[in-house]
């Protein structure tokens, strides 16, 4: 499970791992029953480590896995069936059907419809990086990231995290990289996106410092997404919101996972790779934007992690 996307949050103060573990147990995932439209909860990240809802990967990372199950109900079809039943009743009984009765009809339609629709299951992985004070959510959308954060906050009672804010705003800095000087620790890729007001230009597989791109910038457009490379490590797309997406790892980075002898060893190796790569990307990105406004603190100490691991042995 190598991450393709990473939404990063910074812990604002110390975080109690043991309290979190207790909260995860109380919000363990339960399958949708016949009448549930959706269900969300925590599952063991690795099938080989079913005792762990929060799985330590050495002292560098703790892995979480949120499972969300939802029945893809066709809302348009439901509305049409409700409207049909309302029309029939109004005609047969020669009276108007009001809101409360319409809601009851809607509930009746859902009760018949839901059991016949198979639920779709999605898993969202997250990493707590203790030494960096970061929470990484491998979400492909803001909706998934928000669901992960919301559920973890409900499970723990509180979750002192916030999206990172850098001292220099990313958009003008990334724009300057194309017109003046690229970041010292990273290499410009061949893809970017430029925006101004409601207009956007996407550049794919082209020189992002070409005269055509510079003309767009001179017209007032700013870079909102930019592909970057770390030599012999990875490529990724960085957005102006510090969202990291389309991560592609070089073969040399993924070798430890490929050499693993068991599925469990491969999973652990991949999660350790995720932790190391995302941490390095974040360090280089923050450095390029002159650091964070509010530095993250270490959320989980080593002693607490060791105590948790021993309790499961």
TrEMBL record:
InterPro entries per the UniProt record, alphabetical: RdgC
Pfam families: RdgC
Family: Belongs to the RdgC family.
Predominant localisation class: cytoplasm
PANTHER family: RECOMBINATION-ASSOCIATED PROTEIN RDGC
Subcellular location field: Cytoplasm, Nucleoid
Name of the protein described by the UniProt record: Recombination-associated protein RdgC
Organism field: Endozoicomonas lisbonensis
Keyword annotations from UniProtKB, A to Z: Cytoplasm, DNA recombination
Source domain of life: Bacteria
């Amino acid at each position: 499970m190598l991450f393709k996307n990473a939404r990063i949050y910074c812990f604002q103060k110390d975080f109690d791992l043991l309290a979190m573990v207790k909260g995860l147990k109380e919000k363990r995932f339960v399958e949708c029953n016949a009448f549930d439209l959706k269900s969300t909860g925590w599952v063991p990240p690795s099938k080989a480590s079913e005792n762990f809802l929060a799985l330590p990967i050495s002292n560098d990372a703790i892995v979480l896995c949120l499972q969300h199950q939802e029945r893809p109900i066709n809302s348009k079809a439901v509305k049409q069936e409700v409207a049909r039943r309302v029309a029939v009743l109004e005609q047969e009984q020669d009276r108007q059907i009001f809101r409360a009765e319409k809601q009851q009809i809607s509930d009746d339609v859902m009760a018949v419809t839901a059991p016949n629709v198979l639920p779709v299951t999605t898993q969202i992985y997250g990493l707590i990086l203790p030494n960096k004070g970061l929470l990484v959510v491998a979400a492909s959308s803001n909706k998934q990231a928000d669901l992960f954060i919301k559920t973890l906050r409900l499970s723990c009672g509180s979750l002192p995290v916030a999206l990172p804010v850098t001292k220099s705003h990313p958009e003008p800095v990334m724009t300057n990289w194309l017109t003046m000087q690229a970041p010292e620790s990273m290499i410009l890729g061949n893809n970017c996106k430029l925006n101004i007001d409601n207009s956007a230009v996407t550049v794919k597989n082209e020189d992002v410092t070409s005269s055509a791109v510079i003309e767009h910038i001179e017209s007032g457009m700013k870079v909102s997404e930019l592909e970057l490379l770390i030599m012999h490590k990875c490529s990724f797309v960085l957005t102006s919101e510090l969202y990291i997406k389309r991560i592609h790892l070089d073969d040399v980075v993924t070798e430890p996972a490929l050499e693993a002898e068991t599925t469990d060893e491969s999973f652990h190796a991949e999660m350790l790779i995720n932790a190391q790569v995302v941490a390095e990307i974040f360090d280089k990105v923050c450095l390029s934007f002159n650091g964070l406004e509010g530095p993250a603190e270490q959320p989980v100490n080593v002693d607490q992690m060791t105590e948790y691991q021993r309790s499961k042995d």
